[in-house]
Prior knowledge:
Elements: H1 6-18, H2 21-48, H3 50-60, E1 70-75, H4 84-90, E2 93-96, H5 99-108, E3 116-124, E4 127-134, H6 143-164, H7 169-175, H8 193-230, H9 233-237, H10 243-276, H11 281-288, H12 299-311, H13 317-343, H14 351-375, H15 380-387, H16 392-401, H17 407-435, H18 445-452
Helix pairs in contact: 1-10, 2-10, 8-10, 8-12, 8-13, 8-14, 8-16, 10-13, 13-14, 13-16, 13-17, 14-15, 16-17, 17-18
Amino acid sequence: MKTKGWKEVFGFTFNQHIKTKSFIISTVVIALIVALIAFLADFLPVLLLNDEIDKAERAAKGENIFTVETLYICNETDIPLSFDAFASASGIALKELTHDEAQAKIAEIADTTERAVVSVITSANGVLSVESKYSGGESLVDKGDCSALSSSIASGVRAQYLVHLGVSEDNVAAAMADVRSHVSSAGEEPVSEIQMILNAVVPMISSIVLFIFIFSYSQLVAQSVAIEKSSRIIEYLLTSIKPLAIIIGKVLAMCCVSLLQFIIIGAGGVLGFVISLPFGIVSKASALAGTVMAEGTASGAVDFVNDVGAAFSGVDATVFIVMILSFILGFLFFAGLAGLAGASISKMEDLSSAIQPISIIGVLGFYLAYFPQVTGEENTMSMVARYLPISSPFILPADYLLGKADIVQTIISIVIMAAADAVVMMLVARVYEAIILHTGNRLKLGDMLKMSK
């Protein structure tokens, strides 16, 4: 059998590479970097939204969430208003003032250590207004707290005004519901800004990572074949193993080596995320998702996680299956061509020129996959990149993850990649045995095909 002995070549090549210092060190270092990135991706939002999260957690415990201790209210409208429930829920002392008392208190807190806010509610020409003044001096009242407090009062005024106009209390919440506005082209689902960023960043990162792994290890196949041929080791191997078995063993071994490193690095990312879970934004927002706050200070944290969750809502076991299949099929395609390139030369100095055509093909495939992600739009280029064997390994996993490619399109793309691999392997089977012992100038594709007949 022409493939007899491939297992021995596979075992030798696999063990030779995974035991090298370069493989071990690079794998550990990259895995640690990816783990750190995954950790920071979950932890950094907690630092950025720390104030909102802290307020939400304190509000859930019934504590005062503001740097304000006393709220002075002056109602100059004819609408009966009450803020007792708000004061009780927020833990702020509430005092009602007349117009003159409010003006005197504003003058008093201009230079005081009292942590106070004076809010004057007025009505003019049918327009309700809330003007709030926070104490200056060394009171340490946060301006942002004053703004949030004033917004809460305004919401309370609006709700009570609706009741005053005859709206039932059961319908007030519905009448005050936010109306969100989204702009998108016809035929597309509206997405948030966070989702738009993730939809652009995730595919680009995915394309780059897959390209680096597939292409760098494919070139190692060419280098390995070229080294053995130029050092004449191949002649000793051919005394007991068929040429086709050698290339099959090498390609499969390097595929497993690259896949092993890919999985280890991916596991590092998962580990970093798991470590961050107890104090990351995901766990924080999950705990805060049910917290109802009058001024909505937790909305930023919750909305952030909801948007991220929506962007990755399609993550399941099939996503990882598609990623691994794309990786393996893409590797076999480029590694098969790289093996032929390595066998076509007799001197190591010819290696760079031998793999140059494959490099051009690989870079072209990468950019075909990369540029549609930059535009973020489904167009002819993205469709071509999804089904073209030189680019589909780099674009398909991200497209499937983000819902740009459904299961039928994904299966078609995988089938096309598998068919392309079969064609390449048939070419390798026909050509490799005829050119492996060739010495002299580098063989071009036409020369290799002639020798294989």
